[in-house]
Amino acid sequence: MSEKEVLLLTRDLTKEYKLKNSFGISKKQVVHAVSGVSIEIYKGETLSLVGESGCGKSTLGRMMMRLIEPTDGQILFEGKDITIYSDKQMSQVYKKIQMIFQDPYASLDPRMKVRDLIGEPLVTHKVYGTKEETEARVKELMGMVGIRPELIDRYPHQFSGGQRQRIGIARALALKPKLIVCDEPVSALDVSIQSQILNLLKDLQQEFDLTYLFISHDLGVVHYISDRICVMFLGKVCEIGETGEIYKKPMHPYTRFLLQAVPSMDPEKAQKREQILAGEIPSAVNPPSGCRFRTRCPYAEEICGEKEPELKEYGKRKVACHFPLEG
Amino acid sequence: MRQPRDGETERKTMMEERLLRIRDLRTTFYTREGEIHAVDGVSIDIDAGESVGIVGESGCGKSMTAMSVMGLLKKPGKVDGGQILFDQQELTSMTAKDRRKILGNQIAMIFQEPMTSLNPVTTVGKQVREALLLHNKGMTREEAKKRVIEAFELVGIPDAQKRYSEYPHQLSGGLRQRVMIAMAMACGPKLLIADEPTTALDVTIEAQILHLMKQLQEEKGTAVMMITHNLGVVAQFCARLYVMYAGKVMESGTVKEIFKNVCHPYTDGLMRSVPDMESKERLYNIRGMVPNMLHLPKGCRFCPRCQHSMPKCFQQEPDLYEPSPGHFVRCFLFESEGER
Amino acid sequence: MARFEQAASLAARLAVDSVKERFSPEERLEAIQRVEEEELGYMPMPDTLEVKFVNMCRENKVAAVSAVVLAVMSLAIIFADKLTVYDPNAINLVERLMPPSRTHWCGTDDLGRDIFTRILYGGRVSLLVGVIPTTISMAIGIVLGMVSGYIRQLDAVIMRLADIVLAFPSIVLAMVVMYTLGATTSNIFIALSMIGWAGTARIVRSQTLSLREQEFVEAARGMGVKKWTIMFRHILPNCLPSLIVLFTLNIPDAILSEANLSFLGVGTQPPDSSWGLMVSQSRTFAMSSPWMLIFPSLAILIMVLALNFLGDGLRDAVDPHMKK
Q: How far is the alpha carbon of C32 from chain B, nearest alpha carbon, in Å?
């Protein structure tokens, strides 16, 4: 499934927020949201960014579209560095990279009809000359995502959460993008609707040869939809590789604890004490020195506090750990 | 109404001793657009020390059931019918004063969003202390503070003494939830109602909290009503389970039995919609959406989405049938198995 | 895993069962689609503005009454010349200070002018002074507020300007403008427009700040929509409900400001009348001839109240679908 052509790659991508107190004066404290992340996304695949709160996955996803400006680093899309693009050039990039958002209630302008919501990208980029053509395309998109075209003049509040998410997906597809960044697209939906949307995303990917960057904290969903996953912790990549392999044999301790933490639907398989990761998620303002995971890691040793582990290759996988777990 | 079958005298006496008996509860919201029967004839039993799961998606009425028990319904909602018997006492007909003696004391509740259920302008220690003092009239402030710190240590809050004087926003989500649990457990309740307690937490923190709750439950013998949409949580934590849909109980029984021999098409569909972490087979989709509570379909509430429906399903609502002892299903497919 | 065994078990168990009343898959689909069609019927086309207005009147009687009152007052004011026989400025010292009677419904003032007539004609000034500067200042305030909230670099500058305007007593500023430009009615409009924008700008700015963080604005950015388009297409319409209320609250402010200016001699100049001027001119006669004070005050009171109630009703009518 993976054609080895790289669609998007990041080099040392970093985002730091300076904290200010209420007078607007810098507190000399910095939030290290994303620190030196270098990953690649291959054409036609689904790469998932997985992690808990504060890991930086949402920030990283938004930086790919420069909805958040990177503090440092480069983003190469189809070989070209888009971090230095002007607004006008970025506008052209947006025809190829689109985003689906998490909150179906907040991602659609409540005062716009479905026609205008899905049509907005078409109108912005003047894709069609006449209103009729635009309307025809909007109806086509509505059909693709399973919303009846007669509902084109309704408002978002008349739809359910799942239907709104479909409208958001139709909007993202309007410009025939190559890459879609999906920011927790099913987290706010009921379980039975989640599977509908996931299957829809899968079908659309097949039909239109899409590439997905799928951001989520739900490990079950991630396993279902992604070819490769990238596990993040406190702004850094812990492990990145093929989904099946990582789930079977995680090499980074954090990955293993994440996987073990998911309550299993098999009542016979009870969770054991040793499998539970202790401690709180550290703050991103003062991340631990060296390996950021070391304060929660039961296998941490001295070197973990002194030197940050680099992302090393182990076959097709990359792991950032001084003592990666063996199978 | 549930009638005991012949040869079930054992069960009969046990029923009288049940800690919580909800019988045919009806809660209705009288809105401008019409009446919403959020809880429509729901019967739930919880024994002392038992952990029971109430599973369902949004709008099924699981949270409203809990709110009805706690008397926390907001207008325009009202408990319209049925009984709630806690420890042989009828909660629905009690005065507010008598109810207050029980709530927080013998029945406690923890919520999904610890940030909004904790007062942001008071220290967490004081809040838990307040709960203690409310139900223990003779206690002094110092005594209460000691008990609070003990409770904090019990729930695994590190540096309990220091955390006593901290404000909710200074604590992480997991710690706040532990404070909530401490507050709930402070008075040694017989029943703990947990409404989606881990939904807003990160998965590693969720594991910690579930483990903690299980420990406390075993040590103190507290019964737990666990309301959730997460079947994994139910499988790990609960002994029995009720599946709710559109205001009614669709299936109930022990967790082991239901997960092994699922009967109701909705429960079955739900289980097959959840991705597991091993296979990539195409997920099952339950067709359609949850019905509009103002315009419920005729017949079984689930039939427009059911792949096993029969003509009968579109005409009448099924009763609860019992295909195997203790396992109840509201579905015509099991009609021949015997009346409930 | 256990899950897929279950799937087989339910379906398998059912396949073994010999239940005659089953559907064929086609029949089942038909039955399901019928139910879904019904459900679709519960998603009607949204109401048009006229329908919304009528609904609002039906539910909110106070707002409906206010709308009628305002309509009647406005019509009376516009057609003042058709409804009165007296000349508003004609001095008639013989009939001065007469209490309300059949010939003079509201009595006469100190120069013998019919008060009812002066109220209707004066209403023209008050109405115009209420509406026009409010409209202009709100337009300025909306644009500056949105820019301030959306474009960070301009935020500090605009807000400091607004702070300056708000810090001065508005009357002082208006007086300065009037002295500079000269005391004519049209200059009043200019003066009031220049001081009124600051409050609106502050409110619009805070709404813009919160709307800017909403995902639908992010989505627009992610499509390549330009800044100004985002502001007018996404942010402005979502500020609408509070702007409507603000509008109805600002009109009385403007009317009263004009009254103060006239009182100080830099507003409407006699012999023309405005309600504010009439109120201030009645000062000396308030005790002896109270009708000189009462009727113009009543006119202001009724219009202000009606505007407020109507504004509340409108906001509720425009807003309900924002509530989840």
A: 5
